[in-house]
Amino acid sequence: MLDQKVKDLAKDKNFAAFTTLLPGGQPMTHVMWVDAEDDHVLINTEVHRRKYLNVAQDPRVTVTIIDSNNPYRYAEVRGRVVEKVTGPRARAHIDELSNKYNGKPYDPDAITSERVILRIAPERQRVNW
Predict the structure, then answer these.
(1) Of 39, 106, 117, 128, whose CB neighbour count within 10 A is largest?
(2) What pLDDT band is residue 129 in, cutting at 50, 70 and 90?
(3) CATH code at 82?
């Protein structure tokens, strides 16, 4: 079950550090838009990106969401990508995220491959505040 404080941070306009594992085992981290739904943290990316290729090979990830109003408040979720959602739902979701972060829909010209939502199930959660 996703902690309510994690959900609150993910639903608000806060950024996340999203860490995946490269094929050689080294961690790779990207600053990302983030969301939450039910008991999952959501990350939206494209299927050609390295982070997607990483989770296709090894679903273990860490998402650290940092409170934009107080960077000492954060939540860390360690877990696994349990589902990859493509198609119209993933495309609509990137517009939702862009509206949240930028106040307008996502630029369709910026999409170079298929959008995908990574649904992350928590295995360990830590909330700091």
Answers:
(1) 117
(2) confident
(3) 2.30.110.10
